[in-house]
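ZP: hey, is the uridine-5'-diphosphate complex queued? I don't see it on the tracker
AM: it wasn't, my bad. submitting now with these inputs:
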Amino acid sequence: MRILVTGGAGFLGSHLVDRLLDEGHEVIALDNLQTGSRDNVAHVAGHRRFSFVEHDVIRPYEVGPLDRIYNLACAASPPRYQADPIHTTLTSVLGVVHALEYGNEQRARVLQASTSEVYGDPDVHPQPEDYRGNVNPHGPRACYDEGKRCAESLVMDHHRTRGTEVRIARIFNTYGPRMDLDDGRVVSTFIVQALRGVPLTIYGDGSQTRSLCYVDDLIDGLVRLMEHPTETGPINLGNPVELTVRELADRVRELTGSESPLGRRPLPVDDPRQRRPVIDRARRLLGFEPRVALHDGLVRTIEDFRVRLGVTRAA
Ligand code: UDP
């Protein structure tokens, strides 16, 4: 197949590119390099079935015939998506409109990368797909949360009114090699701090929870959903093993052998208190199953960070 990955030079996008090339497809990565990087796709730059287009999805694009569009383009870490919040909303809303219109024209199937953030700060725990969420529509996270919620609405309206073939994946926190070293996310931040021997910045009291999925597992779920013959979703994709931020800090210190102390910072506004996916639908409909345990995933991620930081052992 000929497949477009928007956000193809990002963390998830570049891993998806690798998987699709391995499966024998022709892959076009489209990215504005706002948070993505050419480094993430440098290893496939000379591949005969790979091409890269520098472009911002808030404007329409034309890349020739297509069978599939994975619409992953959007800054996804809170500091990054809040740096230019209007652009973040436009990326989700206009980006999905352009993917859907192009997909419809090409008779290509479109998968939208949605997010656990559609559940906001959830008052139902864990979160099944039919939970409608608790989002502050005008807070500092709204540009991302509401942009992604609006994108889901556009995807389903396109499907209902124009017959566009669509899929919606609600992606929960994902980590792994190639994460941006300073994207401000908790996993990347703690690993960098541990390897540099500086305090790990725990926001609030560290009792808030997240459920962390290793990138290979997540990518497998995306491909399974895209290739399901009929299921549109939304479907939660993630790993339901939940831990507190404080527990994560302890795991990272232990696995890096770091002596870094724990530091405290204020809890960001509207920071979700808890998050854990119900993945029964993904298991039943897609045969999805996260396989990489947190310990193994963190070891692989730390190794990748050591290489990129040029650190042989923790400070
Ligand atoms: N967090 C933290 N220290 C950091 C970065 C994040 O304690 O240096 C916390 C943050 O407040 C949140 C959790 O870790 O409760 C996950 O944050 P992240 O930015 O990775 O993702 P998101 O909030 O979008 O799930």
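AM: back. The chain has two domains: 2-174+214-237, 176-210+241-276+291-309.
ZP: great, adding it to the tracker
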